[in-house]
User: Fold these one by one.
Assistant:
Number 1:
Amino acid sequence: MDQYMTTEQVAELLHATKRNVGMWTRKGMLQSIRTWQGYLFKPQWVDEFTDKFAGMEISNEEKCDLALALLKRRQS
């Protein structure tokens, strides 16, 4: 059976706020499963997120949009 992490656990692991974890999830930056209790995350998804956005400033929505645009440009 797969192990899942809660929003609180991901926030603690990444030294971030629950609000930021929610923002990253809504923007499609951090893969998750939506449940009636909130979001759940596989550790693999968190690892992929940290690898993908390493060194980028993603503390607010504007900076997230810039990071996503940069990644999209790099893939082109």
Note: The chain has a mean pLDDT of 95.
Number 2:
Amino acid sequence: MQVGANTRPCRVACGLVISEGHGDGWLRRRGFWLEYASIAWMIVEAATAITPGIIASSIALTGFGLDSVIELAAAVIVVWQHRGAGGHPIIAAVEAPRS
């Protein structure tokens, strides 16, 4: 992508170029939407793996479902930190204005 007159580089060194019309708020809302969709998917995935795994006494299927629960916990932590409740120093450093 080329940086033109109506675009600016992303604040974080991520290689994205955001047009001035969208701004950081749009990108943040889209990130939260994707994270919430991932959380919903992981809940369905865990429920559909753990329940039949227990019924069938399948260690592999139950383990797959528990792996989804671990991923779900990680996704919830990401949302928690990006909402500002965590006070995480790395997030604060990334969101700090540059001079």
Note: The first helix runs from residue 23 to 55.
Number 3:
Amino acid sequence: MFPAAIQPNRFEEKLSAHGLTLKRAGLQTLQINVGRKCNQTCRHCHVEAAPWRAEMMPALVARRVGEWQDEMKPNHYD
């Protein structure tokens, strides 16, 4: 068994075995969850949002996200 620090990456090994590589593309879509308060209660919600939830993104973090958006300029926001 390999220690976590030197664990072989089986996904990269599989790609290499097939002569494939992956290259990171530029940022296309930025999804931001600003809070968990929502007027719906969908069972499939990945953030478990609901009308009774009160957690919201702090103003300082929202400002930092805005600054980051200005710098990175993603094509789409979700």
Note: Residues 4-77 form one domain.
